[in-house]
């Protein structure tokens, strides 16, 4: 076991406990209000035995994490804490969260989910704005605080800091944007979320599953941990398997493509002008520098691309490296049946090639060589002129999706 420290929102120190081999796939456990990471003890041990690296986090104001002097326990502070922790991890874990933790996880993964996590499990998490449920949650927290003896495990200033009805409504609205494999686990006799509400929530998820634990009101309890652990291990083995997919020569080409997709790239649009003066172009992310002296670069073009014959023969071409605001441009030049240049600001460059306005950088090139490369051809260019904009961020492509730089 090791103790980990993270820097949360506004510098709040967050503490976590980690067990399992560092190279095993990670699972991040997030407890509910009025609890601490110890509530996951048996679950963490079961997941470790199943070959997972398990990180149990204390929320701000709980357990070993900092109890902020300003008493800031508004919902956004919790959400930004979790996003900060996920950004500091060296891997994308499956996030497992209950009650308040589930609200926090759902909101934190409402945007950029695939950049931060590889899966989500919500346990006993209210998913509809219900004043009666909010009242019962508040009463339970107050009762827990009143019964506590000795050193408290959580800061009682949390009570009254959250608008639970509004938070639950936000999670319900966020469901369609949580772009991760997601499992919702409910106690079959739950008082805080109905089966109908839970099923409706799962139906709105892009990739959702539903499970129930019989004879349980709250699932994260010592007497129901085995049932929860079974659902978790089953979900993890199916949706986040320990064994990495592998490609061997002659097997599924899609697996090979997915493996190549693990290399993050920029996105470019390659442009040229036909003999009759018509501009042509296509989106490409197989682009690299080749030489500084002489200044050479290359781009790979699919043989089946509509512009391929012209690009193979052209004497001049440009490579326009796209910035984060040019995702529509990338889509436009990757599609068919649209006048790409009519909807894209551009100008004719100094060497007669179309240069897309606002690009991160543009390279005007003379054809140096063309090489066959299987189902693509390799177009090598000698750079005649390059311009770039240092104040913009790149449009990135990773695992089949557009990405953007994330600064922790």
UniProtKB/TrEMBL annotation:
Organism: Sphingopyxis panaciterrulae
GO function term, MF aspect, one: riboflavin reductase (NADPH) activity
Domain Flavin reductase like: 260-404
Xref: Pfam families: Abhydrolase_1, Flavin_Reduct
Assigned keywords, A-Z: Oxidoreductase
Designated name of the protein: Flavin reductase (DIM6/NTAB) family NADH-FMN oxidoreductase RutF/pimeloyl-ACP methyl ester carboxylesterase
Domain of life: Bacteria
